[in-house]
Amino acid sequence: MIAKERLVKIVGKHVSDDPAVLEEYSRDISFVHPIKPTYVVYPASMAEVKEIVKLANETQTPLVPVSSGPPHFRGDTVPGTGGAIIVNMSRMKKIINVDRPRRVAMVEPGVTFGELVAAATREGIRLNMPLLPRKTKTVVGSLLEREPVVMPKYQWDISDPVACLEVVFGNGEDFRTGQAAGPGTVEEQWAVGGVQKAPYGPGTASWHRLIQGSQGTIGIVTWASMRCELLPSLEEPFFVGGSELAPILDLTAWLIRLRMVNECFILNNVALAAICAQKWPKDYASLKQSLPPWVLFYNVAGYEYFPEERVKSYIKDITAINQRLGLDAVQALSTVSAIDFLRMVQKPCDDPYWKLRYKGAFEDVLFLTINDKIESQIAAMQEVATRAGYPTTDMGIYIQPIVQGTGLHCEFNLFYDPDDPVEKNCVKALADAAVKELLARGAFFSRPYGDNAALILNRDAATVNMLKRLKNIFDPKYIMNPGKVCF
Amino acid sequence: MAILSRDVYKEFEDVVGPENITDDPALMPSYFNTEHAAIVLPGSTKEVQALVKLCNKHKLRFRAICTGWTGMFPRGIVLFDLRRMNRIIEINEKNMYAVVEPYVISAELQAECMKRGLNFCIKGAGSNCTALLRGHGHMDQTTSGDDRNHLAIEWVTPEGEIVRTGSLGSSDEWFCGDGPGPSLRAILTSAVPPGVTPGVFTKAAIKLYHWPGPTKFPVVGHSPRYTLSHIPPNMMARYYSFPSVEKMWQAEIRIGEAEIAYELMGFNAAMVAANITTCNEEDEAMFKRLSREVQGPGFFIIIAGNSADDFAYKKKVLENIVAEAGGKSLKTVEDPEIEGILLCQCIRISASIRETFRPGGAFNSIPIMGQRDLTIKWAIGAGEAKKPLIEKGLIVDDGGAFFGWGVEHGHLGKTEIFCKYDPSNTEAKKAVEQWQKEQTARAFKERYFALTMGDQTEIGPALSNYHIWWQKTVKAIDPNSVTTESGPLV
User: Fold this and answer.
1) So what's the ipTM on this one?
2) Domain containing residue A298
3) Can you give the CATH number for the domain in which A339 is found?
């Protein structure tokens, strides 16, 4: 174990071995087995991160990078092995750059969505955000997890909106991806009018793709830049409700294909009620009851030039599609107004986080899929839930089209009472069974978290073999978050 | 004399059959003038895999080619010519992707896609190049470019393992190339040296995009003079010139932000002339005519509406933006015959071919991907530096121009500048190479960008030592060093 003084030498007083703090990092809301770290360190610069990684290499000490504040949900920030140090990046919270003309922002890893949304709005741009991140969620944490974003039209590549990253690899060397790599320092690039926007390179590799999705197993990111979108000057959001998912999926596919909508996703009545209910539990129950089983939300927007004409023209074209599919777009469903809902999803979630409101805890089963398969996968999940004794009427479902319509993120939210061991065990068994069943039905678990990661990765030994070869290059001593993904 | 023994040759022959292998010296000149150990034509992934394993067994180096333009190949390698792998495996309309083998050319896939109201990124290399190619093209504004259109990829590694990335490896679907966990797309990148991924890409899924135009262009005329019998509904092609580069850029960025362009190409007058003429004599005359018509730098643009209202809206916004920037429409391009030629050239064919090779017979280019405004700033100087060469008659007179375009509605971009010259003129060749060297050195010194095709010992350290990481990556992928793809970088 590293002597505390060695860490103090790097980060000063910003190191903790307080048992209460260590206990906090030893577990999260997921079912991952708790393991207590030995220290939590809070670096304030890339230089300090490098020193920490160097020390970890010398002493073969596992490092677990964490940027977001609690609560954590997926087990990726719980040490996978004993003797680990949590590298908490929350002191690095500079918004380095927000550039309206180039539509790009650059932040350190401790910056939360709330902080960046405010800064970007002041400049007239915004982020393509995930759906209602919790208040403590950092932008960099979300980008690195490849979380789905609510405006699929602007997600050209699954790595979007990541632009460039600065990273300290597991072997202690630093690296800048994409346009940021050089020539020159970032400051020298700014001086000549450059920004850190193009994601590919240096060379023909796209290094950022190796860092995303790695759950901190390749290196520690010390800043990220990201593409941003313009703030619309006019927005008209709509709901389309229905009892059948098929026509709603059809409509969604066309809206994205024709690029007529910005925010665009589908929720079932459980998830929408859990997000929108004001008074618990009364409002939730009545709202859930009053909503149709499936709700598509979309937003038609206009920008600088003739926004009314653009919105009018799109609404006319969308109405024609709706009529063909027998669907109706409305501006309110039950007590939920589309414009209020839009404003809600353009910010982080108010406390408490929406998935915690119903019962205090949840487990998500999330995967990627395509239009052709999703209905049978939902049916399979409902069967598994029924078999496990979990009421399907309590299961939230969120369907997010990704990458301009080439796929769908599907997420089942299994809410449970953490103080009820029977319910907790039921959800754990259900989540495990669901992963197995959905894998068999073609679900792609692109973000393998927790105990099911091995089950998921064992299906693709060739990829795992190649990933391990790469891991050996960037983190040869396996100090970065050991036990996660396939490492 | 044959490089392979008859026994070894027979092993390769057993995989592909006698009709799909040769070491006949008479055929070598048609394969890049190199003496290859053998040329083999695999017909499937399994055959590629078997061939790669044989190369490992006999410690023979190999390289795969498909529709390749050019290449440098060391003597004695086994060359895989992938021309038999030419099947379109799937066009998934609802999920908007196509799965193709390496020898499916862009023109074929595009024709099939257009029947379904879809399109994809046709690279500047031309519509007769493989649809799998990573790169940029004229429709990047709406169809993206570079490495951003690949989804799942099937890859035979240098050791002969088959890696199926993303959703393909786990669930047998092609829609996603990333994960589980970190993405192997990071290293599955390119077919163009340096920095080429070792191994063979045997299939890949590529993103498709909505195509608002007709299922088939109403082409009339005879080769080489084709045009359209009429301009398809809700489509328009125009060329606008501007009083200055700054004004042009102002219009370009606003068009990107307004999301109205189907295609926007920052052509100069010389490139418009090249694309609407059929020979150099016509080209020269047309360039003179257009040079008198334009007021300064400009761009070619295609507007395409999903409906009449959508088209009317986009056209109105375009006219406003152009007027604000003091732009002027080129009357020549408003002629429906010329407009039709340009629609064909820029959507179906890829305009780059006429622009590049025809005027001088050869060209040297400096292409830069990334931030458009930054690279324009550099290209102004590079264009000025061309002028003495034009005055001396060493390169084709294009007014010292550069070109480029916005990608993904202006989020990214590409800028390129080239000198067209007669390759048999040694003085011209030398002068162009010197210009290229000086201008890339200036870009590097002044921190605009670094081309990675130069001396790695200078460039690599300035770019986060990426060359060392790439060398390590190649070594990890190809421990037996049986591939040649890594080029001069490694």
Assistant:
1) 0.96
2) 234-345
3) 3.30.70.3450
